[in-house]
């Protein structure tokens, strides 16, 4: 047995359907064709893709470098070295040279070796880093070579080839709970949490309908 509420709902629906045709005639309601909406979807998709391309071009190389620095513990290594050299009262100019030689130069070499995806010549800690980054490197084709053996340069020149790897890098960081680095910061201006649509473009050029915004300036008489 149906409940009284379901019977009331059925009665309301029957009433609405019974007067629907009369309502359309009185109001002059016309059902619009939604065939052009596929073009709207294409437009929005292209907008979102462009956002991620820009984000990859601007941040992939920097994020890659920051992750390697984090896993190599560059910051702590530099701090320990500077404290040790200050204890023996080494001049500041010499300390900077030693930091450059013992910290930054090996880090740059490690990044270059990792970009070639060739483990030959790596130290133990560099092998640990390449293991952590292996899902990212596997996101590229097996025979893919970075421009001048530099992921940073290649991401600038061909960001469309790095979008998938950038997303995988974000997943690796999330799995390791490295919250200090955000690969895809949706709050930044070039990557939105939603896709903003230009209503004027959609209506006038996609839906082929005439539309004048309320804020448009009226021509002077």
Describe this structure in words.
The protein is mainly α and about 220 residues long. The chain contains 8 helices and no strands. The protein has helices at about 5-25, 35-70, 75-85, 90-115, 125-135, 150-155, 165-175, 200-205. Helix 2 packs antiparallel against helix 6, helix 3 (about 75-85) runs antiparallel to helix 4 and helix 5 (about 125-135) packs across helix 7. The model has no long low-confidence stretch (mean pLDDT about 75).
Name the descriptors.
single chain, 221 residues, mainly alpha, 8 helices, elongated
Helical content stands at 55-70%
Low-confidence parts, pLDDT < 50 over ≥5 residues? Answer: none
Calculate Rg over CA atoms: 29 Å
Order of helices and strands: HHHHHHHH
Strand tally is 0
Number of helices: 8
The assigned structural class equals mainly alpha
How large is the share of residues in beta strands?
Answer: under 5%
C-alpha end-to-end distance: 71 Å
- Major beta sheet summary: none
Shape: elongated
Indicate the mean pLDDT. 77
How would you summarize the topology of this molecule?
Layout: H1 4-27, H2 37-72, H3 74-87, H4 92-116, H5 124-137, H6 151-157, H7 163-175, H8 199-206
Helix pairs in contact: 2-6, 3-4, 5-7
Structure at a glance:
Helices cover 64% and strands 0% of the residues.
């Amino acid at each position: 047995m149906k409940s009284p509420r379901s019977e009331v709902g059925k009665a309301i629906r029957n009433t609405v359907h019974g007067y629907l045709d009369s309502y359309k005639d009185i109001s002059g309601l016309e059902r619009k064709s939604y065939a052009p909406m596929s073009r709207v979807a294409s437009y929005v998709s292209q907008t979102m893709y462009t956002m991620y391309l820009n984000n990859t071009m601007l941040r992939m190389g920097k994020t890659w470098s920051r992750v390697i620095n984090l896993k190599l513990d560059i910051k702590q290594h530099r701090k320990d070295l500077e404290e040790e050299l200050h204890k023996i009262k080494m001049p500041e100019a010499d300390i900077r040279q030693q930091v450059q030689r013992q910290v930054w130069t090996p880090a740059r070499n490690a990044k270059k070796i990792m970009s070639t995806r060739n483990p030959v010549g790596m130290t133990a800690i560099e092998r640990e880093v390449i293991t952590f980054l292996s899902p990212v490197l596997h996101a590229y084709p097996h025979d893919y070579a970075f421009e001048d053996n530099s992921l940073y340069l290649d991401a600038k020149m061909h960001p469309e080839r790095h979008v998938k790897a950038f997303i995988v890098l974000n997943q690796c960081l999330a799995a390791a709970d490295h919250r200090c680095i955000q690969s895809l910061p949706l709050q930044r201006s070039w990557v939105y949490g939603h896709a903003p649509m230009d209503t004027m473009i959609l209506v006038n050029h996609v839906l082929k309908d005439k539309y004048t915004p309320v804020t448009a300036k009226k021509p002077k008489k």
